[in-house]
């Protein structure tokens, strides 16, 4: 990839359409790092938030249930199409995004870096331990067995991290609730 792709001019992180993640209960450092990381993605890419704090997400151990320090699920959208955010990282875009998150975290909140957990290094659930959870990033600690480890790859070289000013608290999600929340409710009841 050429250096030109890392100009920091892509749009910052956005809320995904029709979803209502609670980002105010995600640590400020993680929201800032992910928001700024999105601006380093290649042209034509945006990054949207699918999920933040959700007390009903997954199992009781889910990092999405950690109030005030919840996980984020992110989706890369390229040319208006969502890039599959679990399983093998065929495009390399999720590995790139995680490296940028690490870079922004290192520049902004170095004390949080050892806590940064990259879903591409672990499975989407205990039932699918070999399916990388590409979209997921949290503060549950650097962990996982799926290589390469983002912490070993490190940030992308020659990128200026720590520049974008990120608003805090983040804006309220737009629109009424929420097709997606309702869908999840229906799933739980089944
Ligand atoms: Zn997640």
Low-pLDDT stretches are 1-6
The average pLDDT score comes to: 87
- Round the Cα radius of gyration to an integer and report it: 16 Å
| Hetero compounds | zinc ion
The tally of helices reads 4
**Which structural class should the secondary elements be placed in?**
alpha+beta
- The structural domain count equals 1
What's the SSE pattern? EHEEEHEEEEHH
Largest sheet: 6 strands, mixed
Structure overview:
There is one protein chain. By secondary structure, the chain is an alpha+beta fold. The chain has one domain. The protein has helices spanning 28-38, 93-108, 150-153, 179-189; strands at residues 14-15, 45-51, 72-78, 81-82, 117-118, 123-125, 128-132, 136-138. The strands form two sheets. Strands 1, 2, 3, 4, 5 and 8 form a six-stranded mixed beta sheet that branches. Strands 6-7 form a two-stranded antiparallel ribbon. β3 (72-78) and β4 (81-82) form a beta hairpin. The longest helix has 16 residues, at 93-108. Bound molecules: zinc ion (ZN). Zinc ion binds at residues 51, 64, 71, 73, 136.
Topology overview:
Blueprint: E1 14-15, H1 28-38, E2 45-51, E3 72-78, E4 81-82, H2 93-108, E5 117-118, E6 123-125, E7 128-132, E8 136-138, H3 150-153, H4 179-189
Parallel strand pairs: 1-2
Antiparallel strand pairs: 2-3, 3-4, 3-8, 5-8, 6-7
Residues 51, 64, 71, 73, 136 line the site of zinc ion.
Label this structure with key terms.
single chain; 8 strands; 190 residues; binds zinc ion; alpha+beta; two-stranded antiparallel sheet; disordered N terminus; 22% helix; globular
């Amino acid at each position: 990839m050429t250096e030109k792709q890392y100009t920091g001019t892509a749009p910052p992180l956005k809320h995904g359409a029709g979803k209502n993640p609670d980002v105010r209960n995600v640590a400020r450092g993680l929201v800032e790092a992910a928001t700024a990381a999105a601006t380093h993605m290649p042209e034509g890419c945006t990054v949207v938030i699918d999920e933040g704090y959700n007390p009903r997400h997954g199992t009781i151990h889910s990092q999405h249930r950690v109030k005030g320090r919840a996980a984020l699920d992110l989706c890369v959208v390229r040319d208006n199409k969502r890039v599959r955010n679990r399983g093998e990282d065929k495009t390399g875009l999720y590995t790139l995004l995680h490296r940028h998150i690490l870079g922004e975290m290192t520049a902004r909140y170095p004390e949080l870096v050892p806590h940064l957990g990259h879903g591409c290094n672990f499975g989407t659930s205990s039932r699918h331990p070999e399916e990388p959870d590409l979209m997921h990033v949290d503060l549950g600690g650097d962990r996982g067995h799926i290589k390469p480890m983002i912490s070993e790859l490190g940030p992308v070289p020659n990128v200026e991290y720590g520049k974008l000013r990120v608003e805090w608290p983040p804006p309220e999600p737009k629109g009424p609730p929420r097709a997606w929340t309702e869908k999840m409710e229906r799933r739980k009841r089944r």
